[in-house]
TrEMBL record:
Lineage: Bacteria, Bacillati, Bacillota, Bacilli, Bacillales
Domain Phospholipase/carboxylesterase/thioesterase: 20-210
Family: Belongs to the AB hydrolase superfamily. AB hydrolase 2 family.
Source organism: Paenibacillus polysaccharolyticus
One Pfam family, short name: Abhydrolase_2
Listed name of the protein: Phospholipase/carboxylesterase
Transmembrane segments annotated in the record for this chain: none
């Protein structure tokens, strides 16, 4: 493997390399690490291959995928490098494991959500769906990147109405931007701050299971828009 990204892979309990499985590439927030997202995705590991990826930049007691000049303004060189590096890792691991190429998902929180949205916009049919929590799309991505999202992309976008880092309007902007590219946008504004609430947790699991066509749990309250 050529990629230098530290990551952890969790395979379904009855993994069979002759079969094909949906996969979730899980991306953490600034200052966190891959174990945080691995724990978050744990309930889905019975049906999905889970790949939790550590950001390459040391940030406090954790890691990051990029640094920022100010809120909403990433350092472009570091951002571009992570976009390229994550694309490479996704392609390499998809070849190494029994991944269904039609069921590749990226789930991320905060910085991870920002990267998830960007990767979905540039990787085309390689990405079936995303869960993007509490993030934003940098302006240079919208204006300067070559955008080619799949018309079949399923996007789950969530944002808290009390988020102290990124205002709710950013979540609404994210959903609106993706609606210009796909009809399969699930936008979930929720009551809470910059964190994953139990209600949101249930909804994102339901979304991923339903979209990938695996066993679903009795989760309710999905808001399609």
């Amino acid at each position: 493997m050529n990629s230098t990204y530290i990551h952890e892979v969790k395979l379904p309990p009855h993994y069979d390399k002759t079969q094909q499985y949906p996969v979730i590439f899980a991306l953490h927030g600034m200052g966190s690490d891959e174990q945080d997202m691995l724990r978050l995705m744990e309930p889905l590991s019975t049906d999905f291959i889970i790949v939790a990826i550590r950001g390459p930049i040391v940030q406090g007691g954790g890691y990051a995928y990029f640094q920022i000049k100010s809120i909403g303004n990433p350092v472009r060189e570091l951002y571009d490098a992570s976009v390229q590096g994550l694309q490479q890792l996704i392609i390499e691991l998809s070849a190494q494991y029994a991944v269904d190429p039609a069921r590749r998902y990226i789930a991320g929180f905060s910085q991870g959500g920002i990267m998830a949205m960007t990767l979905a916009l540039v990787m085309g049919d390689a990405i079936k769906g995303i869960v993007a929590m509490s993030g934003y799309i940098p302006q240079f991505v919208k204006e300067e990147y070559a955008l080619q999202p799949s018309s079949n992309l399923s996007a789950f976008i969530s944002h808290g109405d009390q988020d102290h880092l990124f205002p709710l309007q950013l979540g609404e902007d994210n959903a609106s931007f993706f609606r210009n590219h796909t009809n399969q946008v699930t936008y979930v504004p929720y009551s809470g701050g910059h964190h994953v609430t139990p209600e949101l947790y249930a909804k994102l699991q339901h979304f991923l299971r339903t979209d990938a066509g695996v066993s679903t749990e009795d989760t309710k309250g999905m808001t399609e828009s």
